[in-house]
């Protein structure tokens, strides 16, 4: 652990406070006469100093990928991306065609990442994004807009049995995953560097709660995609009256998600409590729907059960966001 250095403050004139910099830090940071020091007041009352406004980045990071393919390789790249390494170097004695396909596929799913160099034994990936361009709260709002679109069109696909619309909902889930990983990366950036975008009024605590809330939204999108997938496979097997009941309850869960996000972004405790109470009613309604007629074929019964479970979970995640809204409101 680095020991704190103590300096005595001097006052020159009537209003100028002067304090000397620790020599060891100044030398290592390349401070010379005329250098600019950037001062970043923190929400806890501390003051963060950086030389020339810079923050050291994580990287480059080298991953040896001999024999790694598929999910293990993809998970390694994602973990390194979230850990805020700006340059990722993938090395192997000979990078196979299958590995290159995996690398290309995951690069397309990560925001701000590009392949900048590729040889027979090396692939270099670089993050070309500017962390300050889209702060974490803006990423969350963008994520919510897309989740809202997914829920809207999942309900429409259930109502109209529109196969093309259901397919589009399933495809949209990848975009939500991209934004969720971006938010995870942005939070790691804040943790590592105490860096909050000038476009955002969030502090570290706020960023923490937005990171948690994004987990819940990502799960909402998973279940919207799951319902759409079931509609693609089983739309003709589910009776209209049962589907109508599920649409009705699903619409309520959809509203709960929107209200919970509104309560979270506005720290509206009253609205958050309403969401939590309404969520309890959704569970009661679904319990009645989960007992379909014994005359239905087994595939239809299974599809109804899966859709009902996803509708319930969407409501559960809305309630979780509402609880985060209450917790967040007490921390500011």
Enter the CATH topology name of the largest domain: Methane Monooxygenase Hydroxylase, Chain G, domain 1
The H-and-E topology, N to C, reads as EEHEEEHEHEEHHHHHH
Radius of gyration: 25 Å
Annotated CATH homologous superfamily of the largest domain: Phosphate transport system protein phou homolog 2, domain 2
Overall shape: it is flat
* Low-confidence segments: none
* CATH domain class name of the largest domain: Mainly Alpha
Tally of DSSP helical segments = 9
Helix content: 55-70%
Strand order of the largest sheet: 5-6-8-7
Largest sheet geometry: 4 strands, mixed
Q: pLDDT average, as an integer?
A: 88
Termini separation: 30 Å
- At CATH level 2, the architecture of the largest domain is Up-down Bundle
Task: Describe the structure in brief.
The chain is α+β, with helices and mostly antiparallel strands and 332 residues long. Helices cover 59% and strands 11% of the residues.
Description:
This protein has helices spanning about 25-30, 70-80, 95-110, 135-160, 165-195, 205-235, 240-265, 270-290, 300-330; strands spanning about 10, 15-20, 35-40, 45-50, 60-65, 85-90, 115-120, 120-125. The protein has about 325 residues and is an alpha+beta fold. The chain folds into three domains: about 10-50; about 60-125, Ribosomal Protein S8, Chain: A, domain 1, CATH 3.30.1370; about 135-330, Methane Monooxygenase Hydroxylase, Chain G, domain 1, CATH 1.20.58. The strands form three sheets. The chain has a four-stranded mixed β-sheet with strand order 5-6-8-7, covered by helices on one side. A two-stranded antiparallel ribbon has the order 1-2. Strands 3-4 form a two-stranded antiparallel sheet. The longest helix is centred in the C-terminal third of the chain and has 32 residues, at about 300-330. About 30% of the residues are buried. The mean pLDDT is about 90.
